[in-house]
Design brief:
Layout lengths: L12 H9 L4 H13 L1 H13 L10 H36 L1 H13 L3 H6 L9 H16 L9 H6 L7
Length: about 170
C-alpha cells in the first residue's frame, strides 16, 4: 500500500498520480478527495498536474457520425412537417372536389335565410313562466301533497283554483 500523506499532512505525488490514473482504491480516493476539499496547497498542486497532463481524445473522430445523425433528424422533422401539410391539402382538396363545402354552404344559407312562407307560418314562441309563477306552482304542489284526510278543502273548486296570494 502506498503512502498517501507526508508526515506534515499534505498529499504525496504518488497519491495525486493515483487519483489521476484511477489506481487508488475506494478508501484512498475518499481520503484524497476529502483532503483536497480543505487543503488549498494540495489543490493547487493537483490542478497544476491536471493542466500539464494531455487531454484524453476519443478513439475516433466523432464529428462525422454526429453530424450525420443531426442531418437525419432534421430530415425526419422536415418530412413530418411537409407530410402533415400535404395530407391536409389532400383532405381539403377531396372535400372541395366532392362538393361537401358547397353542400354545407347551401345548408347554412337555407338555415339562416328566412323564406317568405316560413315567415308567415311562424308561430310565436310560448312564453316562459316568470319566477313568481313558478314559485306559486311549487307552493301549490307542496300544499297539495301535505293535505291529510282531516284537512281536505271543503270544496273541489278550492283545490282547482290553485294557490292564493293570501298568507296563512
Amino acid at each position: 500500500m502506498m503512502d498517501l500523506f507526508y508526515p506534515d499532512g499534505h498529499l504525496t505525488p504518488q497519491a495525486m498520480q493515483g487519483l489521476m490514473d484511477g489506481t487508488l482504491d475506494e478508501l484512498g480516493r475518499l481520503e484524497v478527495a476529502e483532503h483536497l476539499g480543505f487543503c488549498n496547497q494540495c489543490m493547487q498542486t493537483y490542478t497544476e498536474l491536471l493542466c500539464q497532463s494531455p487531454l484524453m481524445e476519443p478513439p475516433q473522430d466523432m464529428t462525422l457520425p454526429v453530424m450525420r445523425q443531426v442531418r437525419v433528424r432534421n430530415l425526419r422533422t422536415e418530412l413530418k412537417r411537409w407530410g402533415m401539410v400535404a395530407a391536409s391539402v389532400a383532405v381539403a382538396g377531396t372535400l372541395w372536389y366532392t362538393g361537401v363545402f358547397q353542400q354545407m354552404g347551401q345548408m347554412v344559407e337555407r338555415d339562416y335565410t328566412p323564406s317568405a312562407t316560413a315567415q308567415s307560418q311562424e308561430q310565436p314562441e310560448p312564453q316562459r313562466p316568470t319566477l313568481s309563477q313558478m314559485l306559486q306552482k311549487w307552493e301549490y304542489e307542496r300544499q297539495k301533497e301535505r293535505l291529510q284526510p282531516d284537512n281536505r278543502p271543503y270544496q273541489l273548486e278550492q283545490l282547482q283554483q290553485g294557490p292564493t296570494n293570501e298568507k296563512e
